[in-house]
Structures are given as C-alpha cells and as structure tokens.
C-alpha cells in the first residue's frame, strides 16, 4: 500500500521497537492474500515469499518484524479449526467475565473505552454545527484515517490501496452537515495511543462519539466486550444484545461500524470458523486477528514466566 499524498509512512513495531515501512504492508498484504486464496493448503515459506516478491530470507525477517513470529506460526492462528476452538474458548471466557461482574462495555477491552452516543435530536441534525478534524497515520495494518470531534473519536477507517478519497467520502456521508478539516497533528496523539502502546504503560482512556440507530449502538457496544485474542460468531453477538434470532441484523450493524479496530468488528466470525469478510478487506481482518493472537500468546507466556520465576525465588529462599 503506497502512502497517500506522496507521504512516506513508517510504523513502530508495538512490541519490538523496530520499524515497519509503508511499502512493507504491500508485501505482507500479498502474502496474506495468498493465504486467503489457499485455505486448505499449508503454504511453504518459499510460496509465501514468492507471493510477496521477496527472497525467503528477507520475507521471513520482514514478517517476523511485523508479526513477532514466523509466517508458519502466524498461519496456525488463522485456520478454521483454530478459529472454531477460539470461538469455544471465547464463549467460556465471556461467561466467566459476566459471572465476575465485568459485563460493562470496555471493561474487557485492551484499551479503556467510554462511549457517548448522539441524542435523537443531534442524530436528526446529521452533524450540523459539528467540527470534525481528521488525519492520516500509519498503523500495523496500513495507513488509516482517524476522525475526532471535541466529544471523542468518531471515525477510524483503513485506506484501501493507500487512497484517502474513499475513506473521506464515507466519513462525509456519515456526517453530511459537519465541517471538516485535516489536522494530522491533532489526531497524531490518538493514533499513537492506539498503535504505539508501550509494554508496562497504563492503557489510555479513549472516548468514542457514535452516530447510529439504537440497535446499531447496542451491537457496537457489545463488540467492545470482546477482548483481544477472542472471537465470537454473529449469533453470539445477537445473544449479547438480547436478540438471539437477529444474527442477520447484527451482521448489517457490524458491517456499518464507523470505528474500525477500536470497535473490534474484526473479532466477529462465522459459526463454521470461516473468518468472513471485512469492510476494509478480508486480508486485513486475517492480519489483525493473527497479529492480536500473537500478542495475547506473548502476554500469556510472559505471565507464566513471571509466575515460574516467582515460584523459584520462593523455593530458593526456603
């Protein structure tokens, strides 16, 4: 994906501190496209590197810098069998969380998120009197557009092929009477809080300002309850909003999510384990889910290592 408007993008790897250039996203995209087109195969490193247009050595190094693991390890998170198992685990996790009283939106999210919805009166005004500042920023999944109001984030979308036009057109369509101005410096801090979170730092508090129907708002708030590394089916989300037979309507609301990644519609998959479509590209959905799964696995490993170190320390002191 080329950077829009001739700009050169680089994105810090969130965990490792390395640099992933904008041109690298194109190569990663091609490799994940190849994976998506060969779901029943187990592509070799040579096949993936050929799809990305790199030597096996350089592709392995690039992919590990981006994902944190090798391509082979990454693909293990994206099989239908793995997704079906993750569905079962995620349902158990949410059941346990609700039993513990953690049912409010944002409590299970990696980031601390609060939601404010437009009032019915504001909804009818279609953004009249509202100033929306937007900016273009790098992310681990290609350049993205972030839109802010004084009341919170109102949009986050990924740029298709690095082009700003489509994303900006969709934003203006959602808020037809609002005033718009590009202000990358204003939105930069938000982008960094989303995509450059350092280990050990307290997650930032983020406010979302949402415009939608009552049902859409219910669905979007339900999505915020799905933690990183977990997935639910459309039927599961329908149950969360108290409409167990409305999976088709849930799918429609999920598809209209205005704040990608942060409201994690990518964590909703089909009951069969097929990951399904995504407004910003099926390959990007695979990339985000795999990328999140790797980081959750790293956290689990780190926690286990710390617990083992603590136990060894206690044993040696006796």
Give a verbal description of the structure.
The chain is α/β, with parallel strands linked by helices. It has two domains: 113 residues, Arc Repressor Mutant, subunit A (Orthogonal Bundle), CATH 1.10.10; 190 residues, Arc Repressor Mutant, subunit A (Orthogonal Bundle). Helices cover 48% and strands 14% of the residues. It is built from twelve helices and ten strands. It has a four-stranded mixed β-sheet with strand order 6-5-4-7, with helices on both faces. Strands 1-2 form a two-stranded antiparallel ribbon. Strand 4 and strand 5 form a beta hairpin. The N terminus is likely disordered.
**Helicity, as a percent range:** 40-55%
CA-to-CA gap between the ends? 58 Å
Please give the CATH class of the largest domain: Mainly Alpha
Tally the helices. 12
The CATH superfamily of the largest domain is identified as Winged helix-like DNA-binding domain superfamily/Winged helix DNA-binding domain
Strand segment count? 10
Strand content: 5-15%
Task: Assign the CATH topology of the largest domain.
Answer: Arc Repressor Mutant, subunit A
Mean pLDDT: 80
How many domains?
Answer: 2
